[in-house]
Amino acid sequence: MSEVSALWFEEAKKLEVGEAIFVRAANKKEQTAMANEFEAERDDFSIIDPVHASQIFILKTLKDGKQYVVLERRFRSPFVAFKKSSDGKFSKIEFDPERRRMLQLMVRDKKTREEIEEILNGLTDEEVTMFFSEK
Fold this sequence. Notes:
Blueprint: H1 3-13, E1 20-25, H2 28-48, H3 50-54, E2 56-63, E3 66-73, E4 80-84, E5 90-94, H4 97-108, H5 113-120, H6 125-132
Antiparallel strand pairs: 1-3, 2-3, 4-5
C-alpha cells in the first residue's frame, strides 16, 4: 500500500454518510491499482471497525473523460436484516457481535445463567435456545 492511498483512506474515514472523495487516476491501469490499494486499506480498517469499514464503498468511474477512484460512505447496517416468514410477514433480526462474544465467553467460563442475565440485562429467546436449551 502506498502512502498516497493511506492518506486518502484516512480522509475517507472522516466522511459522513452520503459524502464521497474522487481521487484522479492517470489511466485505467493506475485506477485499478489504486482501487486495489484502497481495498487493502479497507480490509486493514475492518479489523478495527468492521461496521464503519463496511460503509466505505470503493468504485471506479469515468467523469468528464477522466478516470477516478471514488471513496464513498453509504449507510449500511451489516448487523440488521429482515426475515420473511412463510405467511409473507417480515420481522427484523438484529445481531450484536460484541454481545454474542461476551455471552460465549461467559458460557465458556461456566458462569450461571442468572449471572449472565444480570450482566447482560436479560437474554433473548434466541440466546436462551442457543446457549441454555437442553441438548
